[in-house]
Task: structure prediction
Amino acid sequence: MGSPRKKLQGLVAATLTPMTENGEINFSVIGQYVDYLVKEQGVKNVFVNGTTGEGLSLSVSERRQIAEEWVTQGRNKLDQVVIHVGALSLKESQELAQHAADIGADGIAVIAPFFFKPWNKDVLINFLREVAAAAPSLPFYYYHIPALTGVKIRAEELLDGIQDKIPTFQGLKFSDTDLLDFGQCVDQNHQRQFALLFGVDEQLLSGLVMGATGAVGSTYNYLGKKTNQLLEAFERKDFSSALSYQFCIQRFINFVIKLGFGVAQTKAIMTLVSGIPMGPPRLPLQEATREFTDSAAAKLKSLDFLPFADLKGGNLGAYS
Ligand SMILES: CC(=O)N[C@H](C=O)[C@@H](O)[C@H](O)[C@H](O)CO
Ligand SMILES: CC(=O)C(=O)O
Result:
């Protein structure tokens, strides 16, 4: 603690919370899950107990145990384990923040409270500051997801001068499609001290062009390898290949969105692709149907069998 930390970069998988058929947390597969992400997907950072992890549907005790399991199983395997500690109760959020520090997590993230909502930037910052102060040694990330929280305070406004108020502020997880707002976050991050992590997987390439320093998302659980190829192509300025990868990812996400896509469906896809049972989601989410899983499986298969070279003659011709 206290030593300068490595900046959070590259892909960060928003982890699912494995559950048994009885709706209990299935801690026994988290070790396997870590190995799968690292070895099969090339993903070495995780974001635990967020949207994808059904964090807001879990008890505080469950959240603590899950965080602990990821930190323990991830030791010497993962680069960073960031714990989402947002809650409607400031007290619970502080408890989780302190717990994350105690167990040796690498950072904490917080969403805006979404029942009684902060209606301006100052109120939101006051709330975030109180949580961050409960873990003064841990990097703090704001998790901007206005479509789910209903808190639409712009991220670029929040970022302006934030380190004076929250000294541990280290960055942002930006889960919104407003590239003006995101671009203005990047623009004011002159010293590049913050991690600006893009959170809309189907639009990652746009986020990268706009200056994202990394990405957090649900699809990196099972499309991490493919997305890493996108990142590599972008790094070497091979934008034609980067776009091919993005389109391939979009074809899949577009397909499942039309069938109805959320955390329950992500659990079904991950179970299918990784072989690790993620189980059903917790109410109010409903388990994915067999029909969904079969269609998603067929789509994944067809995309994997389509080599990127074959795309060149088609709609990507103009870019190659
Ligand atoms: C609302 C939501 O869950 N967003 C996730 C992260 O923020 C994304 O990773 C999406 O699941 C992904 O972009 C697919 O739409
Ligand atoms: C996508 C993401 O970051 C989350 O599930 O919280």
Notes: Confidence is low (pLDDT under 50) at residues 305-320. The two ends are 48 Å apart (CA to CA).
